[in-house]
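ok trying again, last paste got cut off:
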Amino acid sequence: MLSGGLDSATCLAVARRDGFECYALSFDYGQRHRVELEAAARVAASLGAARHAITRIDLRLFGHSALTADIDVPKGRSLEEMSHDIPVTYVPARNTIFLSFAVAWAETLGAADIFIGVNALDYSGYPDCRPEYIEAFERMANLATRAGVEGHTKLRIHAPLLKLSKAGIVRLGSELGVDLGLTFSCYDPDAAGRPCEGCDSCQLRAKGFAEAGVADPAASA
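nice, full thing came through this time. structure:
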């Protein structure tokens, strides 16, 4: 699962390092930061994905998120504020929807392994980035698919970044040769596709690079 952000790009690099042939899946779900899809295409090509598919799901139909509706994206929040409440940038059931699509594609490919770049430390309060969620979804996937029921394929959900800090993800991506300058993390880019540098995602990215002691090649001059 490839959003085009720092985490998913590093996750793709981990899967490649571990010897997997990688099929990258991105989602055009009506997000205001659709520029990330261009980043996803760049990352998939750079890291040698066997195929990069973009599927459309219009979650604007349901709204209720600053990423899909006419709701202001919070800016300038402290790290403490980010860690306390589920933010308005949470998209209802997004990872559940995305993982369901990934499971369906895995079945058609005959694949057993799905990689997702969720992170439980610097995750900005999202409930579908927690380890118990990933474990529960894996159990469900094996109950709900022909591959799982017939027992010829046990689906595994890999979340290799789950317990890493953003700094740890920056270091790992750098070690694996990810061109981090190709990635994009902002929730609210301007009309030219430049990051706002104030949303939670921009701040967590900046914090990660600073703590890793690495210059962000995608940062504004």
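cool. DSSP finds eight helices and four strands in the chain. The radius of gyration is 17 Å.
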